[in-house]
Design goal:
By secondary structure, the chain is of the alpha+beta class. It has five helices and nine strands; from the N terminus they run αββββββαβββααα. The protein has two domains: about 5-150, no CATH class; about 155-199, no CATH class. The longest helix has 7 residues, at about 5-15. The radius of gyration is 25 Å and the shape is extended.
Length: about 200
Amino acid sequence: MSRGLTAAVETLISDEVVRPFYMAFFDFPGSPTRVTSLGSNVNWDSETWYSLGTLGSVDIPEETSNLQANPCVFTLSGIPTDLIAESLDGDYKGEVCELYLGFLDSGGSVEADPYLIFSGLMNYIELDKGPETSSLSLYGDGNEVRLRNARNERYTDEDQQNRYLGDKFFEFSPFTAQSVLHWGRHDLSNNIPKHNGNP
């Protein structure tokens, strides 16, 4: 079995007649977008994936042994210009984008669960804008970018409050860092700073 493929997908690929298609998800702020390369809409995972314009091509990056960031490029054409303007109105950079490979049965229904080919973060878009319809190329960075980029979070009460308001896990961390603890001794009261009546 190929790495990452489910048994169901392996079976579908080995069938005499194969009906593959792409599904792409772009988490634009306020306007999550799901599109398919099929000529009609398709329902999967309790969501409708729209035949919106044409998901013309997808340039999937090859895996590397290092953390080199090779983007996945989604090319879409024939999209209503007003819808593109609505999607690009927010700050989409760093939002999730995903690509799935699905298969149809003879009745046009989705077989098994589509296989997740790519999951990453939207970086930038090249737009070819027309009066009624437009084309765009969306560049998505793989998850290796998250590993390569430094995180700015700190184990402090201030950062903890930004993420989880009211949480007290790091409330006394500055004071415990200044404490001198003597293991095996009972007289510790003079070495532990007081904070609002609490150690």
